[in-house]
Write a structure and sequence with these properties.
Blueprint: H1 2-13, E1 17-18, E2 21-25, E3 31-35, E4 44-49, H2 61-64, H3 73-82, H4 92-97, H5 101-107, H6 122-144, H7 153-166, E5 167-169, E6 184-186, E7 202-205, E8 209-213, E9 223-224, H8 233-240, E10 251-253, H9 255-258, H10 264-272, E11 280-282, H11 288-301, H12 306-315, H13 320-351, H14 357-382
Antiparallel strand pairs: 1-4, 2-3, 3-9, 4-8, 5-6, 7-8, 10-11
Helix pairs in contact: 3-7, 6-8, 11-12, 11-13, 13-14
The protein binds S-adenosylmethionine.
S-adenosylmethionine is lined by residues 28-32, 99, 107, 165-166, 191-192, 194-195, 240-242, 244.
Amino acid sequence: MEIYDELLRWAEDRGIELHGVAPRPILGRGMGMVATKPIKANERILLVPTSALRSLDTVRAKVKTRLPKDTKAHAILAADLALDNPTSKNYRPWNAVVPSRESISSSLPLAWDTRLHPYLPKPAQALLRAQQSKFARDWAAVQQSSLDTTITRQDFQHAWLLVNTRTFYHETARTARLPKDDRMVLQPVADLFNHAADDGCEVAFSPASFTITADRAYTAGDEVCICYGSHPNDFLLAEYGFVLSRNRWDEACLDDAVVPELSPAQRGLLEARGFLGGYVLDAGTVCYRTQVALRLLCCASSSSSVREWEALVDEGEDGGEGLQGEVDGLLVNILKKYRGVVQATITELETLEVGEAGQREMLRTRWHQIGVLIDRTIERLGS
Ligand SMILES: C[S@@+](CC[C@H](N)C(=O)[O-])C[C@H]1O[C@@H](n2cnc3c(N)ncnc32)[C@H](O)[C@@H]1O
């Protein structure tokens, strides 16, 4: 814990105030913030003055000026981190506590063996593709620059993923002019808070500081979390490298269940109206897009006509309870079939030898969660 004591001394010198919380190791989550005394609801537990943020304003001039003019904030911050001497006096205590290259590449799919990528659920794959293209753009910017060429792709990827998992949204009069995803800053110490399964503490910023305020009372020893956003587990997996066991925002993508059931003509009708794909269910509901696709499928097999389907899409006419019963029955059959695909993926992951055991375990856990969401819906609609 010596490195954390040093971090806290370093933080204090920079005006960072912690009230009743301190960094501690948390099983399965690296470090986290834990209450060291009882904390009351609405008590301020952290203040980080703007001067202590690591932002475009603190990036060394030699880094900023040597990168191409249109380089994104993510790449500039990552290049600054990657080129920072680990013992540099400005950030040594912070550099010493951020997750190692090994831990980052074990947890984040971008750094996994690419043969594991097809086993990610579809929404996570889409996020991963977006990350891959941003990373390729940012790495190209570094390669085109006149920066120190000893920086390797692996060094840059580690720094890039640290930025991806540890930055906070921050707006100043100057950054307000930048695109939204360029308004990001690193916050030493605040970046040790893990993501809450419930609401988490309130994060706020003003021109002077960032503050974190307790959302409820905590007793000494409780982990104190913030909320990274109302994200489903596929998002958390792709962007942060973990899934929550209880996540009220979780949902399962049904595209691979529903789209194969559609004829080319039905896909065309749905596409023309912007309803092809993006089908999801959560613990209690099946999304409207899925309902629209299923109703179209019902037209082929029942008394309802494409005209009635158009009335649903264009005028919101729902066709009444009878049609809803038909739609639910069709969905249950589709889900039962897809449940077999989910189970086959879990079984395949059990015998696969690609990547690390922990990464395969993470994927199995995720597919199991998807299976549970599907089972619950089958039970709810089938009864
Ligand atoms: C901003 S950092 C939080 C501090 C981090 N745990 C550490 O050791 O430095 C975000 C990273 O913490 C981990 N993390 C955050 N919340 C988590 C949670 N609820 N469960 C598991 N890991 C979590 C993930 O690795 C994530 O990418």
